[in-house]
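A reminder before we start the practical. When you read a complex entry, don't treat the lines as separate problems. The point of joint prediction is that each chain is placed relative to the others, so the output describes one connected object in space. Small molecules and nucleic acid strands, if listed, are placed in the same frame. In the example below there are two entries. Take a minute to note the order of the lines before looking further.
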Amino acid sequence: MYTIEQLRDIIKAELNKQEYVEEPYSLFEPIKYIMEDGGKRLRPVLTLMAYNLYRDDIEKALKSAIGIEIFHNYTLLHDDVMDDAELRRGRQTVHKKWNSNVAILSGDAAAITAYKYIETVEDSYLRFVIDGFNQVAMDVCKGQQYDMEFESRDDVSVEEYIQMIYLKTSVLIAGSMRHGALIAGAPEHEYNALYDFGGYLGLVFQLQDDYLDVYGDVKEFGKSIGGDIICNKKTYLLIKALELAGDKDKALLNEWLKKKQFDAAEKIKEVTDIYNRVGVREAAMAKIGDYLEKSRGALEKIEVPEERKIHFREMIDFIGGRKK
Amino acid sequence: MYTIEQLRDIIKAELNKQEYVEEPYSLFEPIKYIMEDGGKRLRPVLTLMAYNLYRDDIEKALKSAIGIEIFHNYTLLHDDVMDDAELRRGRQTVHKKWNSNVAILSGDAAAITAYKYIETVEDSYLRFVIDGFNQVAMDVCKGQQYDMEFESRDDVSVEEYIQMIYLKTSVLIAGSMRHGALIAGAPEHEYNALYDFGGYLGLVFQLQDDYLDVYGDVKEFGKSIGGDIICNKKTYLLIKALELAGDKDKALLNEWLKKKQFDAAEKIKEVTDIYNRVGVREAAMAKIGDYLEKSRGALEKIEVPEERKIHFREMIDFIGGRKK
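Here is the predicted structure of the whole assembly.
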């Protein structure tokens, strides 16, 4: 059985071996560029972890797991065009380094490459793998569409927000785990339980991002506190605050949202005060705790020897207790 | 056995039955929009024709054939963004009617939808269908990339040009036919022969487009003659003329290519005169004849009763003799 770190090293070594580039180079160079820029390689690691719950011959799942990382990077290529993002992990985005057309077409080529890799599974699993990945890919599209739509709406509900972050990010985490278990030969109710597990854990992670932006310890969190407040980002905290606030606090909060000129520290303090008054901090903690509990419950449905689940439990504890 | 017209009607009726739209509507409405705007439905018809060479129960191939039409429209969605096209079959393009982000993301969703439809085949064919379609999809990306690159190059060779139009358009025609034969249970050498057949016929069609723009009868061709000459479009004729021309005609041709202000009729006449002098008309006719011959040769390899091939022979004759 492998540790998470060992799996990450195996993924990284395998990624270094890939040759994405053939003619026309201009189509494939951007894929190489975005694939080599690091990151935690979370998704393929999760695929191998799920596979490793059942089997030790992880090399059989390796190429397919790499495909999930390529898929993830394809979504980043297109998202960065749509969001007109300048930087990705500290480097220029593809559409800034080259141009939008390059990012669109290289993204399309990356998607096809991803499918080719993901589909390197035994024939008996192929239909399930394809159906599963078509569903995941479509959900990710839907999530991105909701995310873009929500930017111009000011009546987004908490339920809509959670559905959006679930589709946009959690589904791929969930799908990565289901994929690993599926191609390891897990029974249907277990690979579906891993899908649920990954989905809940993805929600925990993203709600924590919202929470830590306001309530994180600046030393531990690593980035400055209140960034989301300054730019009026529609986070769980903001949406929930607007829902919970009485007339007076709601008016005050809307006033801060509309202000074009303000002192950043003052805005952060005032908005945080409103959050505290209306009970958003407790609501967020309760929601995170709820999803953590649900992820634990999903893991209980996996009937492998307890020692096989140790890294998954570590992961729940790590994510549950994270301060950065 | 079905006629081409019957197959087209069946495809159209089936297309009318499709429900592409679910939530979020803004993601799926553009797919419905581009799918309903008509066109000849050539590719799914070819799939059914190829299937019908071997089997009469074409309803079994219908959904998968529709997937090929959806795939084709996905490539149009993204190509129109990249080419910044205003109109498509007389209607506003998706990125003009909505915006680029909508066209990118709806295109991605259309690609996934296409795969879902295409993959509705018997399990025993699934691996071949997927491998075949991944190859086709990647070739189409490569063709689009070459097409964009060639716009800013003035040293494109005839071989490069033919490779580009082959990848960008012929491969999908070829793949549509291979797909139909494959899922009808044709032997490998026959579905591959149909791929070759479709590839050659695709090249004939596109080279004829180049040819008819200059040498077509204005009454029969339907659009005005010389459009490609006026906008310096890199067609087979222009590229071949630059290759065949002596120093004097080459200089003259380049002069016309550089002119910013000119009388359209004069430019068409002068460039056509150069084409005639250097023998481009004969070269194009020979090339078209060559590919027509090759497509006939590929069809010979299909060992079904001669009467089954009748519509394919009609198609060769129709395309071979087309004047519009």
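Discuss with your neighbour: Residues 50 and 180 of chain B are 5 Å apart (CA to CA). What might explain this?
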